[in-house]
UniProtKB/TrEMBL annotation:
Protein name: Lysine N-acyltransferase MbtK
Acyltransferase MbtK/IucB-like conserved domain span: 29-77
Domain of life: Bacteria
GO molecular function terms noted in the UniProt entry: N-acyltransferase activity
Pathway note: Siderophore biosynthesis; mycobactin biosynthesis
Function: Acyltransferase required for the direct transfer of medium- to long-chain fatty acyl moieties from a carrier protein (MbtL) on to the epsilon-amino group of lysine residue in the mycobactin core.
Length: 203
């Protein structure tokens, strides 16, 4: 994993910081489609990221995708930074402005997310790596009081991702058919999200 390029994020202003006890501080910084292209391409085209849906993309296609996202006001992409290095790719979106909004009954205050966990630093497993990142990202979402429910839709075959979500407190919903995949909806109400963050974190 050490061959995967890591952009210099030291001077990039975070939109959010959160400390998870026993895990460390996670900083959330906006994706720069140009500066981060090597990392993005390496991560999203790996076999381990097959459920992300970008296996087989060229560098140009990855760049076009994140340049397009960068120009939207309803969709955003971030890198979660742990120990000065990128640890996850985090994307948010407003379901009513996304194709997902045609697949379920969107409620006011719904907020959609995608999360791609990067390889552990140094290739070595880190205790609570995934859950620590998820909690930090949930805390960011909660900074806006208008966000009342977090919505995710992982590939229905991605049992590891679904189990991670269940451990954090997401409630599984129905499976839905999207053009690119069969997905499993899952939801986390704001009160449950706040309780999950409080249980393992301090500000």
């Amino acid at each position: 994993m050490s061959s995967i390029p890591s952009p210099d994020l030291s001077d990039r202003t975070p939109v959010h910081r959160h400390h998870v006890d026993g895990f460390g501080e996670v900083r959330l910084v906006p994706v720069d489609p140009d500066a981060d292209l090597d990392l993005l391409y390496a991560w999203v085209t790996e076999e381990r990221a097959k459920f992300w849906g970008m296996n087989g993309y060229t560098r140009e296609e990855v760049h076009e995708t994140y340049t397009f996202l960068d120009g939207l006001t309803t969709h955003h992409a971030f890198l979660a930074v742990l120990g000065g290095r990128p640890a996850a790719l985090f994307q948010t979106y407003e379901p009513e402005a996304d194709p997902l909004g045609e697949c379920y009954d969107v409620r006011p205050g719904d907020y959609g997310v995608h999360l791609l966990i990067g390889p552990a630093h140094g290739g070595q497993p880190v205790a609570n790596f995934s859950s620590g990142l998820i909690i930090a990202l949930i805390d960011y979402i909660l900074t806006d009081p208008g966000r009342r429910r977090i919505v995710v839709e992982p590939d229905a075959r991605n049992e590891r991702a679904i189990e991670r979500l269940r451990r954090v407190g997401f409630v599984l919903g129905p499976e839905i058919d999207k053009p690119e995949k069969r997905a499993r909806l899952a939801f986390l109400e704001r009160a449950d999200a706040e309780a999950a963050v409080k249980a393992v974190s301090h500000r």
